[in-house]
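Category: protein sequence paired with discrete backbone structure
Discipline: computational structural biology
Format: plain text, a pair of labelled lines
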Amino acid sequence: MKAIYAEAPYVIGIRDIPVPEPREGEVLVKAAYAGICGSDLHAYHGKHAFRKPPVMLGHELSGTVARLGPGVSGLALGLPVTVMPQINCGACAACRKGRPHLCENRIMPSTPGWRGLGAFGEYFPAPASVLCPLGDVPLDLGALTEPLAVATHLMSRIPRDHDENLVIIGAGTIGLLLLIIAPSYGFKKILITDIQDENLRLARELGAHAAVNVSREDAVAAVKGFFGPQGCENILVAAGGPDILEQAMEMARPGAAILFVAMITAPSSFVSYPIVYKELNILGSFNYTLEDFASAIAFLHSHEAPIRRLISRVMPMEQAASAFEILDRKSEFAVKILLQMS
């Protein structure tokens, strides 16, 4: 089968590799579409924490059941599915506490535990336990289940007694997905920020009540001008940048919740005084659970039209190198590029 590899930093190649055989408890998925994630770009740059070139990429996919491994039953061939791309051990402290997304021994695509295989191939093996049926969700849209599950998991971390005001920092894929689903969680007044006008234009069309380009406007002043001098009670950080925590603390009202889904790796220093005197809640959100995938698939059913607008291009897998160049160089406006696998 054909498979897409980061052969070296900034070099994408296509290899012919054997079609994997499903093992005990596994299902072989015939891939239809796969999305290019920011983490795939990190691997493309040679900077990912564990996906180092040469490596097969991809973890956001949709497809159909092609073959059942030994011990698997109850799944029909041809069933449209997506895959939650993590295998949990079930035995570590996190798993025993009902937090499998924080599993100490989790196995991810592209790692030896997944046979070094990513989702950027014509076939992908996965345990039946992490298969998620898509129902009548179109397969191209189904490839967005994984990033949408990131968003639904973050929403599950927001305190339940929140008010109706929300700031989303970053209007990339995750930020725009948060914007689309936020009204379903009770948010009625939403401000979103970014540095790209095209992203902010799309955010307005998707329902943002205010969209602020922070390369030209002061983000804190914009938030306080929109929500009032005390700022906002709920702030979601879906993009990195210098002093982003300090900005979030400044725009937060007393008792606010600041939730990070962006993984910012650059060193940063900050003064903790606002955390204490405002009694701020600063939380992280990592990965997802099968329940988050179920919520994401439900949103794909109920919000197909707005979510579909995030698919900027669909390109054949043979053009994977061009797709990575578009996203890396920002040579054209693109939120999410899907690769068509078959």
Observations:
- Residues 145-157 form the longest helix (13 residues).
- The chain has a mean pLDDT of 96.
- The domain at 2-144+310-340 is CATH 3.90.180.10 (Quinone Oxidoreductase; Chain A, domain 1).
- The chain has two domains: 2-144+310-340, 154-284.
